[in-house]
Amino acid sequence: xxxxxxxxxxxxxxxxxxxxxxxxxxxxxxxxxxxxxxxxxxxxxxxxxxxxxxxxxxxxxxxxxxxxxxxxxxxxxxxxxxxxxxxxxxxxxxxxxxxxxxxxxxxxxxxxxxxxxxxxxxxxxxxxxxxxxxxxxxxxxxxxxxxxxxxxxxxxxxxxxxxxxxxxxxxxxxxxxxxxxxxxxxxxxxxxxxxxxxxxxxxxxxxxxxxxxxxxxxxxxxxxxxxxxxxxxxxxxxxxxxxxxxxxxxxxxxxxxxxxxxxxxxxxxxxxxxxxxxxxxxxxxxxxxxxxxxxxxxxxxxxxxxxxxxxxxxxxxxxxxxxxxxxxxx
Length: 330
Known about the structure:
By secondary structure, this protein is an alpha/beta fold. It has helices spanning 14-26, 48-58, 81-89, 101-109, 165-182, 187-213, 230-235, 254-267, 281-289, 312-327, and strands at 41-45, 62-66, 92-95, 114-117, 221-224, 239-242, 271-274, 293-296. The strands form three sheets. A four-stranded parallel beta sheet has the order 2-1-3-4, sandwiched between helices. The longest helix is centred in the middle third of the chain and has 27 residues, at 187-213. It is globular, with a radius of gyration of 20 Å. The two termini are 26 Å apart.
């Protein structure tokens, strides 16, 4: 059930090539026609991490809307007729294939020129309970290319790439290049904004590495509600143990709960992490039974008034504080 392995060395050099391949497929033909009438590129984002990148990179040149409203669990999203029309009226969509099946289906049918599938902008891996036992080694084959770049997300792939600052930076580069292709008149601004985001993500990666990877911790194991932090765990030499699998609404078996209790004691786990958009009942029950603390580790699938921060960077830093407190130092 865990991910006790290091990220393959081949994964990172592939990212730029993957991004360029995806961009060739993302936009078809000429630049988008800016359908909204105010001179801005009308961009639809599938959920918060996609919205954040589109807004940060697009700046004043884009108008961004989010299909997943605050407080809605992204995995559960159903697309309304109004949202389908919204997609068809947009200039571009930024989404992550494999996370939201309803969005995938709607985007496939949508009549718009620029479809940016961010799963095609970095390497995807398999984590979590669905793998069966220890996480399986990832096969970095890319499959067949399609006109939208939908080639890299496969059944069983972990979609939570935004929780790894390095992978999120790879995605940012691809999104920036795709927006520049859709709106070449402002390409220089998209490039500058992309560079700014990538620099900030590089700083965040260093903060995480200094606090986690480069320190002697009392424990390198943490328990979460669902398996959202596999990429982050691999990046910084940690092990995630999830109560549920990649699906936050799935129910753990009694055997899984018993195994987690034993593992917590053996590995010196102090805290069971839960999240704000799904029920915390199972996490708190496990913590109570095993005499452990609870805290929030936010998978950043949406920002609400319960979030410990107002944007991606502030919540990620709150997560880092929560992790360092739970894992301790020797």
